[in-house]
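Pinned message: reference record for EamA domain-containing protein
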Amino acid sequence: MFAGVMLTVRLLLIDLPTTQTTFLRYAIGALILVPFAGRLSLGFLKSKHRSLFLIRACLHGAAVFLWFFAVLHAALADVNAMLNLVPVYVVIGAALMFGEILTVPRMITILVSFSGALLIVRPGFADINIGMLAIFAAGPAFASSELIAKKLKANYDDKMIIITLSVLIALILFIPALLVWEPMTLSHWFGVCLIGLLATLAHVAIMRSFRGPMWASQSGKFIQLLFVAAFGFILFDEVPAITTWAGAFLVMSSISYIAFVEARKHKS
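Predicted structure (tokens):
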């Protein structure tokens, strides 16, 4: 579903301002969720954790803005490969926020993953695209958002967490979106409705995965690279560089390794 969001942005929304696209993604996401969880959003007003909800909305909104911007300015496979670093940031954050121990395998995973990221970016050997800088900045913001969501999940329903995020981001971006608003065609409206639906469903799935440990919730994200690379090759003639594949392989294999190690430990 997240690969579908990237494809839709590149195919149908390339000529819309990123702020407008991001605002509409969350406004439409909120409208989709209202029939199922509209009342739950009122719980935000009585919540003792309003600051956490607001901080998460700011972080997540900024991350999605940077993500959409990167999709328009860099190869899809490169963008997705850099997003594979998000689970590494989550592992580090989980150790700091929830006391999850940074074992030797986890430390090896972090080091190997960052080595993979350097292969993708190739500092000193390739021009650093502005889109790559944007997605590199988006990673820690996405990870921070997911860690806050994990913390909120201990006290709140998934539906409330998701609809509150959509409503808050839509409210935060309303004025900025109006300032850069461009007229929209039918294909634009179809595109923003599609990314609103896909991203909302994907967000619901991510929240469900937070029922387990954070390392487990992250391990399934890597299949996204296969879809994104296929879309980029078939539709945009984007052939990922060998360094992109090598870096992505390092990140994917290291995270998969730690997932298997932790799963065996959990089972025993």
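Pinned by admin. Summary line: Residues 242-267 form the longest helix (26 residues).
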